Amino acid sequence: MKPxxxxxxxxGLSKLNISNDKQHIMSFLKRLFGYKVHEKPYTYNVPKKPYxxxxxxxxxxxxxxxxxxxxxxxxxFLESQGLDCWFLERDMxxxxxxxxxxxxxxxxxxxxxxxxxxxxxxxxxVQTEIQYSFDLNHEIFSLRIDDTFPEGxxxxxxxxxxxxxxxxxxxxxxxxxxxxxxxxxxxxMRSY
Length: 192
Fold this sequence. Notes:
Elements: E1 4-10, E2 13-19, H1 22-33, E3 58-62, H2 68-80, E4 84-86, H3 88-91, H4 98-108, E5 111-116, H5 118-122, H6 124-135, E6 139-144, H7 152-157, E7 162-165, H8 168-173, H9 178-190
Parallel strand pairs: 3-4, 3-5, 5-6, 6-7
Antiparallel strand pairs: 1-2
């Protein structure tokens, strides 16, 4: 027999009891949700998305200047795998306007890789880049390089982000190198 759920109150606290009567389950669900529960699940056609998901070929790398070395290694690795990366340190020309160029490059990109650390968490520029990526509906891949967790607005923008943990503790405990983690990042991008 299948279990049946029954909600009872004891001293003001709700308690869920389980019984094995199918009619009790249906009755309980009807009272809980206020509509008839069907024994057979509905089948329906899922509407197609209004846009086709495009493959990820061009990456915008967002990072704090204090995390420059890991950002460089990430860029070099992803480019060695055939991806085109925009990297501020290398690609920003002195004659270009910073904000205009950043916006243009974000719009040209298919996804954003965030080098996430306590420094990027506190950076207004990084937060603005992530907010713009979010608004563009880009996939955001967060490479976490320390034990910091996102706070405030950054937490909001990164809720749907894919996280790859490259913190020193994880690398040491899992006996991994940064290249191993970057390969996982690349595989995750290719699976989107």
